[in-house]
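ok so i was messing around last nite and threw this chain in just to see what happens. nothing serious, just curious
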Amino acid sequence: MATQSMAIIDGFSADEVTVIERDPDMQGTCARKLTEEEYHDWLEEYTLSELWNKNMIGGRPV
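result:
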């Protein structure tokens, strides 16, 4: 599933999310899988949608 819905992203754990972003250096897109371990400290204070909205996990429209 692909989404930019803040309500939907909060229904998933970080381990279930893959961020797709445009990579200007590669002149294409890149995919990066999130991990709970990588964002554990942030997720104690914020939801996934808050981190996405603040562009802390990437994937925001340019």
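not much to say yet. The first helix runs from residue 6 to 9.
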